[in-house]
């Protein structure tokens, strides 16, 4: 999904080491287990569902904090947290989106194997209140792989199971985190087992863009989508996506067009556009972009994909209309500051701008003889051209005029 991926050069190939140095081969660990923070709530975070990676990200705050927790407890360790995202930009593991820790220990080394056993016993132990894997759940650990076995917090009743993946994990413990665990928003860090409140706390609570808690109840809809309103915004969660917020003009537009029922839950908090003054949220089924000059509008589907290929708001500019259906023929369009993107099932999504767009509009847009565009503008001797279902429009740069050629003429 993904816009604003960190540059691939920012993520080093292989494992990036948080702490240099070899694993302790002799001597005792600094303490028996990581220190459990005081003031934890009596209840424990719910058992998670498996949450597949959805974006390429650097190591997340909770990932780094878990690695530091291990180091604080057991001394100097070799711990990896990141792998380079594939060239396709599609994440293939929790390492890709910064949600995994690899603690380099050798199962064939008795001292290191004992260290692994001590840590995993502590991590997966049932607490005094009878909560299974209490520490793992409070930290947001989704699953563990070690020495040809896997333990899944989302299937805790099964216990340790044989691991049949290509890497037997005999030289490291792999820990994958939930989205909340990776964001450092579970009860271990925030003191609350409610992911919605945990996200609010992580953002800064009353000092955040959401403002204070208005006292509204947490509501859960079909499919496990939950929301909670704050003074200036709303926080959403679902079983398989990160907890994220929507506020301001973007929230107003989101609510106006149908909210979760239209765009799904947010996949990002509101983020600033990198060059121009504006903001955006990505959702499961599209994005909403906002600027002071244009207001807030949604962009979806193939039209969003084409707009992204052209440079997002740095290409055609911000959207100035929402995602709209063409009035008489099957298709959709969105207008932007610098042009329009039209889509139909037969032609796909293509941009039309400038004098070429103006000439097409005068002929009735897609309802005229030309129909939908079949290609973006491209250079020709002396100017530019756009092809349509029924012909083409050419712009003469020297004369600053356009001419239309119809198919069959």
TrEMBL record:
Keyword Membrane: no
Keyword terms of this UniProt record: Signal
InterPro entries given in the database record: ARB_07466-like_C, LGFP
Signal peptide (from-to): 1-32
Domain of life: Bacteria
S-adenosyl-L-methionine keyword on record: no
Pfam families: LGFP, VldE
ARB-07466-like C-terminal domain: residues covered: 60-173
Protein name in the entry: ARB-07466-like C-terminal domain-containing protein
Organism: Kineococcus endophyticus
């Amino acid at each position: 999904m993904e816009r604003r991926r960190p540059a691939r050069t920012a993520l080093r190939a292989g494992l990036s080491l948080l702490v240099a140095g070899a694993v302790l081969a002799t001597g005792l660990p600094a303490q028996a287990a990581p220190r459990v923070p005081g003031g934890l709530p009596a209840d424990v975070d719910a058992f998670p569902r498996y949450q597949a990676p959805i974006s390429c990200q650097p190591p997340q705050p909770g990932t780094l904090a878990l690695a530091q927790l291990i180091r604080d407890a057991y001394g100097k360790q070799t711990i990896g947290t990141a792998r380079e995202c594939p060239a396709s930009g599609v994440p293939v593991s929790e390492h890709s989106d910064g949600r995994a820790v690899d603690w380099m220990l050798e199962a064939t080394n008795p001292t290191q194997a004992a260290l692994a056993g001590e840590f995993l016993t502590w991590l997966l132990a049932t607490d005094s209140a009878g909560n299974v894997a209490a520490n793992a759940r409070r930290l947001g650990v989704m699953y563990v792989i070690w020495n040809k076995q896997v333990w899944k917090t989302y299937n805790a009743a099964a216990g340790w199971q044989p691991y049949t993946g290509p890497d037997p994990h005999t030289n490291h413990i792999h820990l994958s985190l939930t989205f909340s665990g990776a964001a450092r928003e579970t009860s271990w860090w925030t003191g609350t087992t409610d992911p919605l409140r945990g996200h609010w706390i992580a953002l800064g609570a009353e000092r955040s863009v959401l403002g204070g808690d208005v006292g509204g109840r947490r509501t859960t809809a079909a499919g496990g989508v939950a929301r909670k309103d704050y003074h200036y915004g709303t926080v959403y969660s679902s079983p398989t996506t990160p907890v994220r917020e929507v506020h301001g003009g973007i929230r107003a537009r989101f609510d106006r067009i149908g909210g979760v029922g239209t765009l799904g839950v947010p996949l990002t908090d509101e983020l600033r556009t990198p060059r121009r003054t504006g903001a955006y949220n990505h959702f499961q089924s599209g994005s909403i972009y906002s600027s002071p000059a244009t207001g807030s509008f949604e962009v979806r589907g193939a039209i969003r994909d084409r707009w992204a290929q052209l440079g997002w708001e740095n290409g055609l500019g911000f959207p100035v209309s929402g995602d709209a259906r063409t009035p008489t023929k099957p298709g959709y369009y969105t207008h932007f500051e610098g042009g329009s993107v039209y889509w139909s099932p037969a032609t796909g999504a293509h941009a039309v701008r400038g004098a070429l767009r103006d000439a097409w509009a005068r002929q009735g847009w897609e309802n005229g003889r030309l129909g939908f565009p079949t290609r973006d503008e491209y250079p020709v001797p002396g100017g530019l051209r756009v092809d349509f279902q029924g012909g083409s429009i050419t712009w003469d740069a020297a004369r600053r005029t356009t001419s239309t050629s119809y198919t069959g003429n």
